[in-house]
Protein backbone atom coordinates (compact mmCIF):
# COMPACT_ATOMS: atom_id res chain seq x y z
CA UNK A 1 0.00 0.00 0.00
CA UNK A 2 1.56 3.26 -1.13
CA UNK A 3 1.04 6.75 0.23
CA UNK A 4 -1.03 7.55 -2.89
CA UNK A 5 -3.14 4.41 -2.36
CA UNK A 6 -3.93 5.58 1.17
CA UNK A 7 -4.71 9.11 -0.02
CA UNK A 8 -7.12 7.87 -2.69
CA UNK A 9 -8.76 5.42 -0.28
CA UNK A 10 -9.34 8.31 2.11
CA UNK A 11 -11.08 10.19 -0.70
CA UNK A 12 -13.27 7.14 -1.40
CA UNK A 13 -14.17 7.06 2.30
CA UNK A 14 -15.04 10.79 2.13
CA UNK A 15 -17.34 10.04 -0.80
CA UNK A 16 -18.96 7.29 1.31
CA UNK A 17 -19.61 9.89 4.00
CA UNK A 18 -21.17 12.17 1.40
CA UNK A 19 -23.46 9.34 0.32
CA UNK A 20 -24.51 8.68 3.90
CA UNK A 21 -25.15 12.39 4.53
CA UNK A 22 -27.45 12.40 1.48
CA UNK A 23 -29.42 9.46 2.90
CA UNK A 24 -27.84 6.77 0.73
CA UNK A 25 -25.82 3.72 1.77
CA UNK A 26 -22.26 4.78 2.70
CA UNK A 27 -20.14 3.80 -0.28
CA UNK A 28 -17.81 5.86 -2.47
CA UNK A 29 -15.32 5.19 -5.25
CA UNK A 30 -12.94 6.92 -7.63
CA UNK A 31 -10.80 6.08 -10.64
CA UNK A 32 -7.24 7.20 -11.24
CA UNK A 33 -5.80 7.21 -14.71
CA UNK A 34 -2.45 5.94 -15.98
CA UNK A 35 -0.72 9.11 -14.76
CA UNK A 36 -2.17 8.71 -11.24
CA UNK A 37 -4.63 11.60 -11.45
CA UNK A 38 -8.29 11.27 -10.52
CA UNK A 39 -10.35 10.91 -13.70
CA UNK A 40 -13.78 10.14 -12.20
CA UNK A 41 -15.46 9.70 -8.85
CA UNK A 42 -18.91 8.81 -7.60
CA UNK A 43 -20.91 7.79 -4.57
CA UNK A 44 -23.78 5.46 -3.86
CA UNK A 45 -27.15 6.88 -4.95
CA UNK A 46 -29.34 3.77 -4.58
CA UNK A 47 -32.02 5.55 -2.54
CA UNK A 48 -31.88 9.07 -3.98
CA UNK A 49 -32.03 7.69 -7.54
CA UNK A 50 -34.48 4.87 -6.67
CA UNK A 51 -32.10 2.53 -8.50
CA UNK A 52 -30.87 -0.63 -6.78
CA UNK A 53 -27.88 -0.73 -9.16
CA UNK A 54 -26.59 2.78 -8.40
CA UNK A 55 -23.45 1.55 -6.66
CA UNK A 56 -20.44 3.82 -7.27
CA UNK A 57 -18.26 0.95 -8.47
CA UNK A 58 -20.83 -0.06 -11.09
CA UNK A 59 -21.35 3.54 -12.22
CA UNK A 60 -17.59 4.06 -12.62
CA UNK A 61 -17.10 0.74 -14.42
CA UNK A 62 -19.88 1.69 -16.86
CA UNK A 63 -18.31 5.12 -17.36
CA UNK A 64 -14.90 3.58 -18.02
CA UNK A 65 -16.32 1.09 -20.53
CA UNK A 66 -17.97 3.96 -22.45
CA UNK A 67 -15.27 6.61 -22.19
CA UNK A 68 -11.88 4.87 -22.04
CA UNK A 69 -10.07 2.86 -24.67
CA UNK A 70 -9.05 -0.64 -23.52
CA UNK A 71 -5.38 0.29 -23.00
CA UNK A 72 -6.25 3.26 -20.78
CA UNK A 73 -8.86 1.27 -18.84
CA UNK A 74 -6.27 -1.43 -18.12
CA UNK A 75 -3.96 1.21 -16.67
CA UNK A 76 -6.55 2.63 -14.26
CA UNK A 77 -7.03 1.94 -10.57
CA UNK A 78 -10.37 2.01 -8.79
CA UNK A 79 -10.28 3.02 -5.14
CA UNK A 80 -13.38 2.13 -3.21
CA UNK A 81 -14.53 2.36 0.37
CA UNK A 82 -15.63 -1.31 0.43
CA UNK A 83 -14.79 -4.44 -1.49
CA UNK A 84 -17.03 -4.53 -4.58
CA UNK A 85 -20.13 -6.74 -4.42
CA UNK A 86 -20.65 -9.48 -7.00
CA UNK A 87 -22.61 -7.22 -9.36
CA UNK A 88 -19.93 -4.53 -9.27
CA UNK A 89 -17.04 -7.02 -9.50
CA UNK A 90 -18.57 -8.41 -12.69
CA UNK A 91 -18.90 -4.94 -14.19
CA UNK A 92 -15.33 -4.05 -13.21
CA UNK A 93 -14.05 -7.20 -14.89
CA UNK A 94 -16.01 -6.52 -18.07
CA UNK A 95 -14.94 -2.87 -18.19
CA UNK A 96 -11.28 -3.87 -18.32
CA UNK A 97 -10.12 -1.83 -15.31
CA UNK A 98 -6.63 -2.81 -14.25
CA UNK A 99 -6.69 -2.69 -10.46
CA UNK A 100 -9.06 -2.28 -7.50
CA UNK A 101 -7.97 -1.13 -4.03
CA UNK A 102 -10.58 -1.24 -1.26
CA UNK A 103 -10.76 -0.17 2.36
CA UNK A 104 -13.27 -2.50 4.07
CA UNK A 105 -13.48 -6.15 3.05
CA UNK A 106 -16.86 -7.80 2.54
CA UNK A 107 -16.30 -9.71 5.77
CA UNK A 108 -15.53 -6.51 7.69
CA UNK A 109 -18.59 -4.80 6.22
CA UNK A 110 -20.79 -7.74 7.16
CA UNK A 111 -19.57 -7.43 10.76
CA UNK A 112 -20.72 -3.78 10.83
CA UNK A 113 -24.24 -4.53 9.53
CA UNK A 114 -27.21 -6.21 11.18
CA UNK A 115 -27.78 -9.82 10.11
CA UNK A 116 -29.49 -10.23 6.74
CA UNK A 117 -33.14 -11.21 6.84
CA UNK A 118 -34.98 -13.32 4.33
CA UNK A 119 -33.77 -16.23 2.27
CA UNK A 120 -33.20 -14.31 -0.96
CA UNK A 121 -34.41 -15.27 -4.39
CA UNK A 122 -34.49 -18.99 -5.14
CA UNK A 123 -32.61 -19.86 -8.32
CA UNK A 124 -33.46 -22.87 -10.45
CA UNK A 125 -31.55 -24.27 -13.40
CA UNK A 126 -29.77 -25.00 -15.59
CA UNK A 127 -32.50 -26.07 -17.99
CA UNK A 128 -33.13 -26.30 -21.74
CA UNK A 129 -29.44 -26.38 -22.60
CA UNK A 130 -29.89 -27.43 -26.23
CA UNK A 131 -32.32 -24.57 -26.90
CA UNK A 132 -30.54 -21.91 -24.86
CA UNK A 133 -27.08 -22.58 -26.25
CA UNK A 134 -28.15 -21.67 -29.82
CA UNK A 135 -28.20 -17.94 -28.97
CA UNK A 136 -24.73 -18.11 -27.39
CA UNK A 137 -22.82 -20.74 -29.36
CA UNK A 138 -20.12 -19.17 -31.53
CA UNK A 139 -20.60 -15.65 -30.18
CA UNK A 140 -17.41 -15.61 -28.12
CA UNK A 141 -15.06 -16.93 -30.80
TrEMBL record:
Molecular function via GO: catalytic activity
Pfam families: dCMP_cyt_deam_1
Superkingdom of this protein's organism: Bacteria
Chain ranges of the CMP/dCMP-type deaminase domain: 3-123
InterPro entries assigned: CMP_dCMP_dom, Cytidine_deaminase-like
Listed name of the protein: Cytosine/adenosine deaminase
Species: Streptosporangium roseum (strain ATCC 12428 / DSM 43021 / JCM 3005 / KCTC 9067 / NCIMB 10171 / NRRL 2505 / NI 9100)
